[in-house]
Amino acid sequence: MFVHIVSSMRFKPFHLIILAGFLYGGAVTAQPSKPSFTSIELQPTVAYLNHAGGPRRMVRMLFHGGKDYTQGKLLLSFNGLQDSVQLPADTAGRAVYEIALPGVPVQKDVQLSVQLSSNGQQYTARCIVSPTREWKVYVMPHSHVDVGYTNVQAKVLSIHMNNIDEAINIAARTATYPEGARFKWSTEAIWVVEHYLAAADADKQRRFWDAVKKGWINLDGGYGNINTSATSPAQLMHMFYTGTQLAKEHGITVQSMFQGDVPGATWGLSSQTDITGIKYFLSAPNASDRIGSADQWRDKPFYWRSPSGGQKLLFWQCSPYSIGYSIKGNKIPNFFTIDDPKPYYTGHPSDNFLNPFLFNYLDKLQQKDFPYNMTLLTWAMSDNAPIDPELPDAVKAWNERYASPHLVITSAHDFLQDVEAAYKDQLPVISGDYTEFWTDGLASGARETAITRNASDRLQQAGAIWALRGKTGYPAADFDTAWKDVIMFNEHTWGAHNSVSHPEDPKAISQWAYKQAFALNAEKNTNALLTKSETGETAITNAIDVYNTLNQPRTELVVIPASQSASGDLVKDNQGHKIPSQRLSTGELAFLVQQLPPFSKQRFTIQQGNAYVSSRANVTGNHLQNGIYTVELDAQTGNITRLQKAGNPANLADSAGLNQYSYLPGDSAEKVQYATQASIRIKEKGPLVVSLLVSSPAPGANSLQREIKLVAGIDRVELINTVDKKAIRQKESVHFVFPFHIPDAQVRYSIPWGSITAEADQLPNTNRNWYTVQRWVDVSNKDMGITWSSPDAPLFEIGRYPTAGLLGGLHNSTLWRSFTEQQPTIASWVMNNLWHTNFRASQEGPVTFRYYLQAHKAYDAYAANLYGLANHQPLIAARATGPAQEALFFTIQCPGVYVENINPARNGKGVMLQLVNTADAPAAVTLAPHNGAAALRVWQSNLQEEDLTEMKTAFNLPAKGVLMIHVATN
Length: 970
Prior knowledge:
- By secondary structure, the chain is an alpha+beta fold.
- The protein folds into 6 domains: 31-129, Immunoglobulins (Immunoglobulin-like, Sandwich); 136-434, 7-stranded beta/alpha barrel (Alpha-Beta Barrel), CATH 3.20.110.10; 447-535, no CATH class; 543-614, Immunoglobulin-like (Sandwich); 618-857, Distorted Sandwich (Beta-galactosidase, Chain A, domain 5), CATH 2.70.98; 889-970, Immunoglobulin-like, CATH 2.60.40.
- Helices cover 19% and strands 33% of the residues.
- The longest helix is centred in the middle third of the chain and has 29 residues, at 506-534.
- The chain is elongated.
- The model is unreliable at 2-32 (pLDDT under 50).
- Residues 136-428 form the Glycoside hydrolase family 38 N-terminal domain.
- Residues 624-787 form the Glycosyl hydrolase family 38 C-terminal domain.
- Keywords: Hydrolase.
């Protein structure tokens, strides 16, 4: 996404672009009537000209006060040598002349003196020429893939698909060009490639794959430009699956990912290299919009070491992807305003190219003691723009003129492979999270964000149920489709460039509908797959099967509809034992499942009779307790002012109260408004389930309801908050704030494949104003803490409103936080419309946000992950079919290790699963046959489910390690 406005576009011209119209030493169009120059200036460069059969250091002579039209003579004195140059007359006038200096490259600073005789006068100038290196600059042609934004998605897709055809034609035309000028095209997103191949006939497909194998077309592994910190580990896997699968089918490998526009990425990406094969990551973020000080990472390549230390991802953040547009794109037709744009030929390929931008850019790198002799620029003509067909000719002419910097048309993979070959032992190795900046836009579509997060969790559960039941006919293709919908909702483009300025524009409406459909389709397809995983040949009357899709025993509440529990309120397990149950005020039946084994199913029957009661929870007035927690609400606000756990006398709630609704008009913390005038009533009276329902008028909303729930004997406080939002287009934010009373607390939270401590595990110059959580946030000191979890709301702030005051400074990095002060206040940032483009101008209607709290003693990473998993993947109740008990064909004993994902192998033999070690030390994992299964075979595997190395059934998983394995029977 270009950001800021040029005509209808949101792009701010890159601030380093200067003198873009000055080309080589030749003529620049001018009116002869303009005055002649009055003085000259010398500008040293890092460049070498091809001159008289060899490289000569180049200095640019600039004419001031006008242009030079007449012939002249230039005398040079440099490094003990003299030379003279005849300047021919130029009727068009020249603004710059490139001087080739005499002699060999200098090894120290040397002064150049020139004397120009022209039009009967003499002009003198001097400059210092410093030593430089020979430079190789890679240029990566692409068109930034926004799925929408510039036009409706169908139009956008047609442009990118046409670019592939054009690229193949240009590559064929330039195949005999000198090396470096031969054309290559990066498709950027597999989303484009998949649609291209689906629409292509057999001949066109063969032509495409032939171009790929020749290196004319480059495939990067990512399905799109994704907000990676908003994606679960399973989503990250599927983000790379289609690309690596296509490559495998055609005998090639995909090892690189390219991320355009999006500033930042999750540290979790470094943990997947062994599984996905993606070992190179080229980032080309936005130039200025909402990026904080992330630009400080430009041209600072490093090996991004995984939390385990066992994997490395070569990362390079290059210049903003908009360089090409900055220099040339605004000199050609504005593709945002053309409904069906085509590649544009100016007839002058070298006009508006890299001279003098590149010389200035490389000089700045050299002044910063940049240790490498290579770098990369991307070359795109705007978002979703046609290809630049003249690039190969511009590069060819450049390399003919300049010995250095030498240009090479490249791909992300080829560039980073060359970097690694040249500098492998010199690249720094760095650990930490590159905390993303743009995830705040997720809260502009809170309902759809929650839908997608829940669909992702249910997809994992559907795969787990298929695996534990040992069902045949696993519909892998249907799962892939559902995963793509989930991933594409997390793609960084949400809507139109004018979604905020003109939200009623039919194109803006259409583009959001397309985006929204990813969430709705993910929900629909996931529910269908979940139902399919649960069903069998014959349903059993008055019985419910409950599935545990995690590798931990579970004691949890299950709720089933009134229609499935009409036979009575008494629930028994498959041994005939009575189970605690309660008919809820909604007509649903709730019952308590106790110690359901890992990866298993058990049957429960619904019978006539009264509900069985064992332990009791109580509710009176504004108080709830369940034998573990005591909760008290403020009568005026409905906030939780007392949260106490048995065995700990401390009140874990700050005096302001937990679960506060707050509304910020604009971004002003001084104008914050709260929900008051609460009406509190008892909703569930117990004895198993008790809850209080708080109804309040709320600023920015039609209504607000908050339900606070406890279950007898369950170590969890559940909050269910429903906001019926008013559509308001003025800037605003909605939070639910949790100021915990935990002195000296540290804040930790889950990321894909692991967890981090805020600040301590973040790279410098990354986002500290808000965070994106996977499954849990933990606020703890050395003695006690709270683990906080929300399946629906991914954004949170540490402290009160660190985003306040930021609207006016989104391009000003000094207003972005550079340090996270540890505080025990977590603000769940559930809604906002603070963007000026792309994201929604307003949202309305009811949205529900669920939160789960668990108090504990000292922080335990393993316990926090198990708790987060349980909240995101609750026990699943379904109509009873098949055997009364079912379980996975093996058991997994692995203290400190959790199973991130499990599903049947695509070849029908066994299951695939990923293991994550939460501990700082190696952890023992033991697999054993279960329920009479045959002996096990175990292999280390990868994303394509290839058996790489056979393993023993007992092995160690490295500290913080991630491993994908294939388990089957003999």
